């Protein structure tokens, strides 16, 4: 029990990152009924885009100056890849059977992984991970909870991004058009809404959130890797389904629930007699998907989702 506050905090930090990635899944699915399985790699390219910007900056530059530039660079890379994927990979298949864009998304995921792998091929030796710069201050201690410097950025960025998105969707003209397109794209188009533009905006917003998560990942773990998007993307998709895919608030809630469940399972299951083999960090991904199975069995629409009929 002495470590419970720390484990809750760890779960909230991890879940916030999952939630940022999950928002990209849920926005695209809510508007165009497409599960973009390449979104994990968009998260990864956002992290590498930020790292590339940092490597191009003068040596010894302060992180307070470098971090905004890294965020902008990572966001530009992730948004351009997300929008390009929509325009050239998914839009031509919009009227095709659902299996076609799914296979395309998997192919795009592998292509992005290989592209980044080759881009950072140094001296004939492929670097599986690249060191990420860190914030110039140590951890904060709040009572019995220790907050690492990378997590400080995350706990500021995640609620701020979520609040701005909520206001944008609720109050802006484009946000209302996104809601209309999500409800009925054909009727929205008849009412004068450019649905192609709305879909592009959804992909762009998802790419931006993925880039923020990619920078958060690098600051939190100290490195980025070309294959980091695979598991993170699967867990974020799990979070989106857990919260109710298509629901923006559900995506963040699902991420938080998933992060807390993963942190708790990893920390405490090893203390249960006979469960030592299942309590290691290597099993953390397993518990995430166990939670997904339970939710699908007992509440398939997710925590905040609603039962709706399939579109004709």
Question: Care to describe what's here?
Answer:
The chain is mainly alpha-helical. It is built from eleven helices and six strands. The chain has helices at residues 4-32, 39-56, 63-90, 99-119, 149-171, 173-183, 185-190, 195-221, 228-243, 248-268, 284-298, and strands at residues 121-122, 125-126, 129-131, 140-142, 145-147, 223-225. It has a two-stranded antiparallel ribbon. It has a two-stranded antiparallel ribbon with strand order 3-6. A two-stranded antiparallel sheet has the order 4-5. It is globular, with a radius of gyration of 20 Å. 43% of the residues are buried. The model is unreliable at 308-312 (pLDDT under 50).
Can you write the helix and strand succession as a string?
A: HHHHEEEEEHHHHEHHH
Largest sheet: 2 strands, antiparallel
Tertiary shape: globular
Task: Walk across the major sheet and give the strand order.
Answer: 1-2
Number of helices: 11
Approximately how much helix is present in the residues? 55-70%
Give the low-confidence spans: 308-312
Mean pLDDT: 86
Strand content: 5-15%
From the alpha carbons, calculate the radius of gyration and give it in angstroms.
20 Å
Distance between the termini: 52 Å
Number of strands: 6
What structural category characterises the helix and strand content?
mainly alpha
């Amino acid at each position: 029990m002495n470590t419970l506050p720390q484990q809750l905090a760890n779960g909230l930090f991890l879940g916030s990152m999952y939630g940022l990635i999950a928002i990209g899944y849920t926005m695209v699915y809510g508007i165009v009924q497409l599960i973009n399985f390449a979104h994990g790699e968009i998260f990864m390219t956002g992290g590498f885009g930020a790292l590339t910007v940092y490597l191009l900056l003068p040596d010894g530059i302060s992180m307070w100056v470098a971090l905004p530039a890294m965020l902008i660079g990572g966001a530009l890379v992730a948004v351009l890849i997300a929008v390009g994927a929509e325009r050239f990979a998914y839009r031509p298949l919009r009227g095709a059977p659902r299996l076609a864009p799914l296979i395309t998304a998997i192919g795009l995921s592998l292509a992005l992984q290989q592209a980044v792998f080759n881009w950072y091929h140094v001296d004939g030796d492929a670097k599986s991970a690249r060191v990420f710069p860190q914030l110039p201050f140590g951890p904060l201690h709040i009572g019995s909870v220790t907050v690492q410097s990378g997590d400080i950025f995350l706990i500021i960025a995640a609620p701020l991004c979520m609040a701005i998105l909520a206001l944008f969707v609720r109050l802006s003209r484009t946000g209302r058009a996104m809601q209309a397109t999500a409800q009925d794209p054909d009727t929205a188009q008849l009412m004068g809404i450019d649905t192609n533009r709305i879909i592009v905006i959804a992909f762009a917003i998802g790419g931006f959130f993925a880039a923020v998560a990619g920078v958060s990942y690098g600051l939190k773990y100290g490195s980025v890797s070309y294959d980091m998007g695979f598991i993170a993307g699967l867990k974020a998709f799990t979070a989106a389904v857990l919260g109710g895919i298509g629901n923006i608030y559900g995506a963040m809630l699902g991420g938080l629930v998933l992060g807390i469940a993963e942190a708790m399972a990893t920390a405490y299951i090893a203390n249960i007699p006979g469960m030592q083999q299942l309590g290691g960090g290597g099993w953390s991904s397993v518990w995430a998907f166990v939670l997904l199975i339970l939710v699908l069995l007992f509440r398939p629409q997710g925590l905040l989702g609603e039962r709706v009929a399939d579109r004709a």
